[in-house]
Amino acid sequence: MINRFPVWKNVIVVVVLLVSLLYALPNMFSQDPSIDISGPRGTAVAPALADTVKSALGTAGIAFKSVEHKQGKLLVRFPTSDSQLKAQDVLAPVLPDGSTAALTTLPDLPAWLVAIGAKPMYLGLDLRGGIHVLIDVDMEAAVDQAVDRYSGDMRTLLRDRKVRYLTLTQTGTALDIKFADAESLAQGEKVLADEFRSLAFNRSEEGGSFLLRATLTPAEVKQIKKFALEQNITTLRNRVNALGVAEPIIQQQGERRIVVQLPGVQDPSRLKELLGATATLEYRLVDTEHGVEDAVAGRVPAGSKLYKDRQGQPVLLKKRVIITGNQITDATSGVDQRSGAPAVFVGLDSQGARRMRDVTTENVGKPMAVVFIENRTVTRVADGQQVKRKVLVEEVISVANILEPFGRRFQTTGIDSPAEARDLALLLRSGALAAPIEIIEERTIGPSLGQANVDRGVRSMIVGMAGVVIFVVAYYRMMGVLAVVSLLFNFIVIVGAMSIIQATLTLPGIAGIVLTIGMAVDANVLIYERIREELRLGNSPHGAIHAGFERAFTTILDSNLTTLIAAVILFSFGSGPVRGFAVTLFIGILSTLFTAVTGTRALVNLLYGGRRLARVSV
Amino acid sequence: MEFFKKTPNIDFMGKRRIWFLISAVIVVASLLSVAIRGLNWGIDFTGGTLLEVHYAEPVDLDSVRAALDASSVGGATAQHFGSSRDVMIRLAPETGSTEEQASTKRAQQVMAALQAATPGAELRRTEFVGPQVGAELAENGFLALLYTFGGILLYVALRFEWRLALGSILALLHDPILIVGVFSLTHLEFDLTVLAAILAVIGYSINDTVVVFDRIRENFRKMRKESPAEVINSSINQTLSRTLMTSVTTMIVLVAMYLLGGDMLGRFSLAIILGIVVGTYSSIYIASALALWMGVSRKDLMPVKKEDLLDQRP
Fold first, then answer.
1. Which of A416-425, B44-53, B178-187 comes out lowest in average pLDDT?
2. pTM for this model (two decimals)
3. Would the CB atoms of A570 and B152 count as touching at under 8 Å?
4. CB-CB: which of B7, B122, B133 is closest to A134?
5. In 3D, which of A608, A612, A564, A592 has the Cα closest to residue A483?
6. A122-123 and A504-505: which strand pairing?
7. N or C: which end of chain A has fewer CB within 10 A?
8. Domain interval for residue A22
9. Is residue A228 part of a domain?
């Protein structure tokens, strides 16, 4: 039978429409101002906290809609953003220390929609307001630090094994160790190659010099960089969590970049304080064997380095790093039991603990220092050219005597105030960054602008679609109505798909949807123009409809596939807003192919199929 | 309602030389404008700091500029965008101190100065783009253009024929050049959004071209007696009402976005509107005419004869 669809095709059309409609539905519901409470460093909160929160809000007389415990978080909904803001102040003192209460909005969905996992589209920062920051990780510094660590480890190992060497110097990512004779060179190589399997060793015995060169293998360099990036992401995530922001995004971008997005945050200064503290910590022994005066006069002993403390006084420290910030697993501020002075309690990972124990056992009674290393980028203009220079600030923040050997847990005292102890603990706790970072891009969108963007986008979408509807119906009459129905269908599928995959909707994304709607008519136009042509050629109405759909299909496929190529490339090269456009364009094209070809055909068949036809209204 | 009661019969190919000439003139003019006037690059590409400030009352730029001059921040430019209550302030990339910290400090200084002059000035948006990122965004944008062209060239060559592929690419090149030319002449800001619009135009324009090519291929197989020029002519004529129809519907939504969508969607839609005007023209004239000029003929587009193994079986 001509122009009848098999049942399964109709079923597919109906199922796709229903599923899309269902998942597009959450976008129609209003958003509740809410507070999202999570435990210290993202840990779960006790369900019992819900009662505490309820009674606190009740005492303060603040109206709230509901308090629910979900996935270890407490979600409190409010009728107005006014009560939400008041509640934040009220709740702060009653929540356990270290937990965060973040302002957010939650869709007010009925339970059955929540049950099927339906969520509204994820709005990009340009639509909800917030801060976007792109961070560059200094990989060269990460590699440098690793080489530094190796050089310290080698010195220790050679000394422990009583292998005599002349000098150990760093050239780029390689270490050169000079020996006095062939025997000690062979011995040294054996010892070192045994211990440091990730390094490549080369020896040369030319002109009476016995040189061993240890190089980082490319695999090792890659590994170091990977670790540095991962460590920094974790650190940033911890630091950002301390800010108390709902749904923060911290993601790797490319090989050395990190994107941080904080929806709803307006003031970038607090974030920058945390991010800007691009600090690394190092614990080093104080060199007590040599005089500081000699070093200040320029005679710095090999294996030691001259630092300054916060008052500008010189301090001579051993070059060998005991542990670095990334070996710190935990740090809390508190009060020293014995003296009552503010203190920071520090926990180390097993590797760090072992080293710390080794070093402190050997050096009881000797002073140990914490060095704070900060990286800054300075741009200067020289000869009309911008010259960027990295400035390294190294500062000894505390020197304390090792009272007894310690490993995994220890405390640092000698801190001026409880506030300083808290700051230091936060820095230590969130882990120092494995490599210095620099903010290279920052965008802040105010919430009012976000709302304005939503309004503008929606308004132009409604007006644009209305215009298309009027024009298409006027031009194609009955068939035009069908095209409009399939257009609405298309729109629902796009919104449903975006909601299901939780793709980010941005302002350019809205433009992508609007543009897709405008261009989607093209498929219908191709079909209808074909039908008109066939009718002019004297075909029967049924024959014309059939031929119109058949012949137009390859054209529709060809033209949409080429646009798809553009969308895919836009997605892979674009960043931020451009990507949002590419996503909707991509989804829009696929949805158009389905709705305009299969959807319209189903409608046409429903209307005209299986009955005698004198004429077609096209 | 129909644009044409019957299939029109316009001699497109006959006048192709005139249109080639016009296109060539416009392309050269665009390139000259870019070379002489340059482009008003957005901070996406140049790096720098941008502040968007919203006032409760309409504000005139002279007072904003006076406030900026009075502040200690140098090198700031102000302009209205969208409405007389919205002002965009751009700061050139800072030099001589810590880049990112300075950018925040300068933004704060600017806002302090503006709020002192007009209480109630609201900071709606700030952007800071480091010069390094700007260079990368520009490079990625350029690469995206290149790969899009490559991808389309390959697709059309595989699906159709290399002459048609080359014709469509040259027609495609023509569209972004014109858009860039207009942005250069009008000194409208050229940022990532506009670049995305150009890529969308490429998608749209190739869409148009492919529809015409599809018809050319079909007609070459059907119309055995006519010359290539005649075949191409009637193909364009047959698809003309579709080409116009699609341009009109797309134009409706674009005009809605241009008028109601605010500054960013406005520039985005302007670029596409321009692109659709020239894209429609270029796919009609440039793509097909170039293919004709390169000597596309019937035998290039005949279906490959089926000489399957099946037929050779005894």
1. A416-425
2. 0.74
3. no
4. B133
5. A592
6. parallel
7. N
8. 7-26+446-608
9. no
